[in-house]
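Marked as duplicate of an earlier ticket. Keeping the data here for the record.
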Amino acid sequence: MRRIYQTTWHGIPFDSFANLSSTVLADTQFFHAFYRVFFEKYKHSDELNPDWVRLKLETIRRLHDKIFPSKKTRILSIGCGLGFQEKALLGLGYSELEVTEVSEHPLKWIRPHLAEDRIHVGLFPSCLPADRCYDSILLAGIDVFFDETQWVEFLREVRARLNRMGNCTMISWTLEHEDPLLRSMTKMKARARQALETLHISHRGQFWGYTRTRQEYHAAFLQAGFTNLTDETIDTGTQWLTYRLTGSEG
């Protein structure tokens, strides 16, 4: 597991709305400020980077083909963000979809497409009705925000909300390099950036979370009690490496 840093997202420089921290993880206040600027910049999803849109749609098409067996599959997407992938699932005919997000701010585009009782705002799992479980739970891009201990505990909470023989699918866009040489080079670059920041020459950027290896992802799923793990990299035709890992409840 390695820390990663970021300076922009969707073409928005972080230092245009926040004081960057290389030690404190981006929090709810940070994302509140980000989405305020985001919706000032983008009035409609058609204005977004077409490669980013393709990334999301191709990922969902793969899950549609391989993971979700029925349009009646009861799906929960945790941390849906803008809800771009979730809107795509609705367009494909999945009628039993629910979403969670830690705050109201990013939900502007997805809210009109879901009934009020299908949108849960707050921290998982406390934001959900106590007795509600799902056939499939989707975690797309949220793994980055958890350290090792938090990630395993979170996955255990996810598993507890699955129906018998349900599954959890994680999508990560921050998979660590498998090649030892590339990983070594990445670590050297990280140390150099840290040194430049210490000397007040340049800032590494906002502490954005963690990247993991395939082995680390598998170990966390197994420690959380998931079985029958399957994984793959998905070719989305974009610059972003997309990694899928699915585990069963029992």
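See parent ticket for discussion. The first helix runs from residue 28 to 41.
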